[in-house]
Amino acid sequence: METGGTGTMISRIRGKLVSVLENRVEIEAAPLVYEILVPSYALAGLRARRDQEVELFVFHYIENLQSGNASPRLVGFLSETDREFFTRFIRVPDVGVKTALKALVIPVARVARAIEAADVLALNEMPGIGKRTADKIVAELKGKVQKYALLGAEAESEAAPLSDFQEEAVEVLLRLGYKRFEAERMIRKVMAQHRTIASSETLIQEIFKSAAPAAVER
Q: Residue 157's pLDDT is what?
């Protein structure tokens, strides 16, 4: 049995990504190192950020509560909206935390689009999701996850490694005193709005232009 929610214990964890394993990561937030389960779709982007500072939005739950071997677990997400979708997804009958983690091999936005389109075949292709469960997912969530589907391009880009010129922009922002997670957040936000940007110079200009007249978001 699994129980839990975001609760008030831990909402997000920020620290050095020290390990990326098959289905989990380890983040060092001194003096502690947290083991965090992560959906497969997010792991590729995180592998490219090993030994860098990252921030994950976390979901806390208790595993094996009734068996006498209760274990607290953390599940991590690249964005708050992904975590929000996950909490809806696991409430569907026969879809708990473990099934959801196994199933989410594609970004949340694509899952949401399949649900809104009642694409049972696409959902059925996700690991651990049979046709009956796919039908339940559509029945329970269709009409309730539009906002996650509409955030598709931005949400999917969260899991993608930065391009070379975007990494150059990161280095500029780091020299200006920003943390890496802050720099990446600003870069992804601007790139979602200006997809034709192809140089670090233009990207930096747009970051500061979009922040004017206020200071760049910290």
A: 55
